[in-house]
Predict the 3D structure of the following.
Amino acid sequence: MNKAAILAAGDGLRIKSIAPYKPIVKINGTPLLELTLKNLHFKNFKNICIIFNEAEKEMDLSLLPGLSSPGVNYFFKSTPSSMHSLYEVAQKLELKSGEHLFVSMVDSIVIPLEAQNFHQFCLTLKSDESALLVTSFIEDEKPLTLKINEQGYITEFQCPIEDGVLITSGVYYFSENIFPLLLEMINEGQTKMRNFLTELVKHNHKIKIFESLKTLDIDRPEDIHSAEAFLKGQAL
């Protein structure tokens, strides 16, 4: 596991009453981007790429000391969706055949132990397999739902919420072999990460899940309070 990325190019409109830019929203006193770097163990990687949107050039980067850590590179580019942001960071990291890319959304709240367990799980994958961190805990307004088979591979995305349904946590481990389809969808004018993931399954890409009891993401002001309560008492 050498290459990783954080997607932080969203506009964060619903959180602007708390902070002008999502990466500097504070959770228990720590900016969200710093929390993501720490809790998801980005220190494990030699080459880390972070994408911000163009408006985030106005951020006070002194609030984000993790940007100066060894191996961390970042750039500013506004994109139509996180699907496009994924393509941009993959281009910067120049993935080679057989490599994997660890990816997190900037607002994915995961306890460190679960993140470490997910990393270990990813090491067991074959070169043509990808993985998603998922949970059965649903607090999101528009969760990306999924179903799996007995072997733990995803069989369906965007399914009705019912017993046994899981949702994505915004943390991925992508095989290099998924990127030709990503480029094809971008060239066709398609958008949204959930549509891309849906197409991966339709094209028979192998995606395994690793289930966490609970993860959160930060979209609304009330999500901050949920995240602070969730993380208190955890070994950060």
